[in-house]
Design brief:
Layout lengths: L11 E6 L3 H5 L7 H14 L5 E4 L6 E3 L7 E5 L5 E6 L2 H6 L8 E5 L6 H15 L4 E6 L12 H19 L6 E6 L10 H4 L4 H6 L8 E12 L3 H4 L4 H4 L2 H9 L2 H11 L4 E10 L10 H16 L5 E5 L10 E2 L9 E2 L3 H11 L6 E6 L19 E7 L8 E6 L13 E5 L11 E7 L12 E2 L16 E3 L3 E5 L2 E6 L1
Parallel strand pairs: 1-2, 1-11, 2-6, 3-5, 6-7, 7-8, 8-9, 9-10, 10-11
Antiparallel strand pairs: 4-5, 12-13, 14-15, 15-16, 16-22, 17-21, 18-19, 18-20, 18-22
Length: 490
């Protein structure tokens, strides 16, 4: 059994675009109870709220205004382009609406090269939220994309003294910063000159980013596909997204960096601080489907299996954000709504539960000598993925996550295929009775949360509707239809 260290209970966390943050929480006068209920459902299952990163591209044009009455004001020019965003003291009251105990990663502006502005924001956040709620500061969003053409050395020359001086100004004498937040996909092989020259967490640490002992975690961003231009949009297809082989091959590119960072900073130190399926807001009929839910579930569990500590799924601003788990406000895209993908985070949170010793392993296709689950080939052609969850005191897993990623669309006229997965080898006894909770919808391309069920319940209204549905199985054989997943426990 090749299992991870104990899973972080906040594995399934969020990154929220700075400009959109107040839409997700509301304010003290008008809290967004729809959104807040959705956050709360996750905490109910683990006992620990999802962490929230306030960041994204708009963080690098956000400044602090202590005299501003509004929580957040954005300045749009005559062409419709965002120029800047200002936060005022009321912003922290919006943050405090999140479930009690929510930890915040606050992104500071690096792109403007204005240290005083970054320090002002850090001071305001530290005063407004306090050390108990601020988990980490992050300086800059995706600095490897800046027009400044930064490399690891130039970045570190700014980042390291900024982190040291901000720490001193706030009286912080422990690591409180998240380094990196880079987004370019690693080149392969990792020991090639081109790969070693990339600007990423590892090269920043090698350049001295932690010389001042300010680094707590390293973050990198992952987008498996892109909608940023026509040439990349064509590849962002539902049939490619919902495939274990493809997502595992993609995430495996980060394994050398994950290993290096954990060796230098500790077992909980590598996070994917922003991710989603398709960059530039997602793609219609891909990122807003039940297929995205299956992709999000498999991506989160596979990343955890290769020792990513926490995953922060990015939530953008309507109407351009098709990959969000829900729309918190009515916009040009339509009314407030939950998307099918929210159900994946319910699944993950329930799988982790209240345990603080739960470990994870990818059972099928399984771990190969090089750490991948698919490098030697995937016998199911990317359609089946199975994960086991072990408590430290158990020789057998106590839960299994079963995913059937075979595409089945809502308008398909043929009978829905299915498979039978034999789990008997993982049970303490052959006649062990197990409970099965299912993640289902009419098909991979389903768009409606009303028709997406987790354990028989829907969450389209922001709260659970319907009764919990679960099954009992006593023969070690679990039937799983195409485009569905099941959590099995005993």
């Amino acid at each position: 059994m090749d299992a991870t260290p104990p899973l972080n209970p906040a594995l399934a966390s969020f990154s929220i675009e700075t400009i959109a943050f107040e839409e997700f929480t509301g304010n003290q006068t008008h809290p967004n109870t729809f959104s807040l209920n959705l956050f709360e459902h996750l905490k109910e299952r683990t006992g620990v709220p999802a962490e929230v990163r306030i960041g994204g591209i708009t963080a690098d044009s956000t400044v602090w205004d202590p005299n501003q009455e509004a929580a957040l004001n954005s300045f749009i020019d005559s062409t419709g382009a965002l120029r800047s965003t200002k936060l005022g003291p009321q912003f922290w009251n919006s943050v405090k609406l999140l479930p009690e105990g929510t930890k915040i990663i606050m992104t500071l502006d690096l792109k403007s090269l204005n240290y005083t502005g970054a320090l002002d924001m850090a001071k305001a956040a530290w005063t407004g939220l306090g050390s108990s709620q601020i988990s980490r500061f992050e300086i800059g969003n995706e600095p490897d994309q800046y027009s400044l053409h930064l490399n690891a050395q130039k970045y570190t020359a700014m980042w390291e003294p900024w982190s040291v001086n901000i720490s001193k100004a706030l009286g912080i004498n422990y690591p409180e910063f998240q380094v990196g937040a880079t987004v370019k996909t690693p080149l392969w092989p990792p020991n090639s000159p081109q790969a070693e020259a990339q600007f990423d967490c590892v090269s920043a640490l090698a350049a001295g980013a932690n010389d001042g002992h300010t680094v707590a975690t390293c973050s990198e961003h992952t987008y498996q596909y892109s909608n940023c231009n026509p040439s990349t949009t064509a590849a962002a297809m539902l049939t490619d997204l919902v495939n274990h082989t493809r997502l595992a091959q993609f995430l495996d590119l980060w394994q050398p960096r994950i290993h290096s960072v954990r060796t230098q900073l500790g077992p909980d130190a590598f996070v994917i601080g922003e991710f989603n399926s398709v960059s530039c807001g997602g793609r219609a009929n891909v990122s807003n489907t039940f297929g995205q839910a299956l992709w999000l579930l498999d991506t989160t569990l596979y990343a955890a299996s290769i020792n990513v500590s926490r995953m922060y799924v990015h939530q953008g601003a309507p109407p351009t954000s098709r990959y969000s788990l829900w729309y918190p406000v009515t916009s040009q895209s339509g009314p407030i709504k939950v998307f099918p993908s929210y159900s994946a985070y319910l699944f993950v949170s329930e799988a982790i539960g209240q345990s603080r010793s739960l470990r994870l392993s990818n059972i099928f296709p399984g771990r190969e000598a090089n750490g991948s689950s698919v490098a030697g080939g995937d016998p199911s052609a990317g359609q089946i993925s199975v994960y086991g969850f072990w408590d430290e005191s158990s020789d057998y897993p106590t839960k299994l996550a079963l995913l059937n990623l075979e595409i089945y669309k809502t308008k398909d006229s043929h009978p829905r295929p299915g498979i039978t997965i034999d789990i008997s080898a993982y049970l303490p006894k052959k006649t062990q009775e197990v409970t099965v909770r299912r993640l289902t919808s009419p098909g991979t391309d389903e768009l409606s949360a009303n028709l997406t069920t987790w354990a028989g319940q829907t969450f389209a209204s922001g709260v659970a509707e319907g009764g919990i549905v679960e099954e009992k199985v006593t023969n070690g054989q679990v039937v799983l239809e195409a485009s569905s997943a099941a959590l099995v426990y005993w």
